[in-house]
Amino acid sequence: MLYRLKNDFRLSIITLLGVSAVFGVTPFAILRFIQGNSVAFVVDLLILAGVAVSVNHAWQTGDTRRAGLLMACVASYGAVLVGVLVGDPGLFWLYPCLVTTFFLTHPRMALAINVSAVLLMMLVSDAFRSHEQMWSFAVAAAVVTASAHVFAYRNRSQRRRLEHLATIDPLTGVKNRRSMDYELDMAVATAERTGKPQTLVLLDIDHFKKINDQYGHVLGDDILVDLVTLIDSHTRKYDQLFRFGGEEFVLLLPDVGGEDLDTVMTELQRLLRRRLKCPDGAVTISYGVATLQPGESMESWLTRADDALYQAKEGGRDRIVYADGPPIAAMPASA
Ligand SMILES: Nc1nc2c(ncn2[C@@H]2O[C@H](COP(=O)(O)OP(=O)(O)OP(=O)(O)O)[C@@H](O)[C@H]2O)c(=O)[nH]1
Q1: pLDDT under 70: residue ranges of the chain
Q2: Ligand 1 pocket list (CB less than 6 A)
Q3: What is the distance between the alpha carbons of residues 249 and 176, in angstroms, rounded to a whole number?
Q4: How many CA atoms are closer than 13 Å to the CA of 38, on its beta-carbon side?
Q5: What is the distance in A from the centroid of ligand 1 to the CA of 213?
Q6: Domains along the sequence of the chain with CATH
Q7: Is the pTM of this model over 0.80?
Q8: Is the ipTM of this complex over 0.85?
Q9: pLDDT value at position 330?
Q10: Which one of the listed residues 132, 163, 183, 247 is annotated catalytic?
């Protein structure tokens, strides 16, 4: 949980704002109830429910884009409703929302939410005591929104650049081990939620040291790039390939298990045997394959795939070993 909070910026913002909203709005909901203002009480409850749905959706699915958008809408239009129902307090609520929308959703979408919320507040609410106060509010809201937009835009492009540098392997262009941990964590959560199989394949080029020694590191690098290109061309859009380290890669196959898995692996092995070459012939690969078991942790899943890879190496290399027993057992080199 801490890992996800530390590594997913938007999830951490959604969680922080969710917790703040619960502590900030609940006392007012209680106050409205005591005052007998049942409409405002119901609105506060709806805001809390919307916030809870956003936080829950973000944690359950990892889809922080939709969750952030929902939370931005709930907070901003909720503040407008509060303005309509109880006046002044809506204005105070809307101010922090004008900034936080930019942390929750795409800058363009945040801009649209802010403009529409401010216009709605000006058109339908009795929150303003005078026209002068209303226009002061509008100008201040425009300045806040413009500053937040510029900040969010720059922040977003810098964060993207940093994320790219931190998560992508510069040689092959696939995700590195750091991002793999996050994606495997997500795969475990998805399997628990949907019950669909998730399979992990560890691939390791055989005798890569010899290839490097014989032909040099530049050709070694080319083989790593070729391997990634070939796997990319063979796999589906939602399969994910990671560089685990050196000449070892991890392929994550969602919704693949049982007999399907055997077909996918056999075809992948056939393709790489045919197409991955060094100057004096084929480059061979050993595979360790593990399908996530019910209730299994990411660490155990990865360890089982690693053990299967170790068996493939020990068994003579150039073969597939299934940690969970064969759909069709370990494939000999001639298979
Ligand atoms: N060209 C190149 N070589 C790399 C890179 N990363 C690691 N290597 C090399 O990969 C080789 C891995 O060697 P080993 O771990 O002994 O494995 P191996 O020779 O493939 O032997 P087996 O895995 O047991 O079949 C080392 O020589 C590393 O220098 C890289 O980015 N480019």
Answers
A1: 327-335
A2: 171, 204-209, 212, 217, 220-221, 224, 246-247, 313, 317
A3: 9
A4: 0
A5: 10
A6: 2-167 (no CATH), 177-322 (3.30.70.270)
A7: no
A8: yes
A9: 42
A10: 247
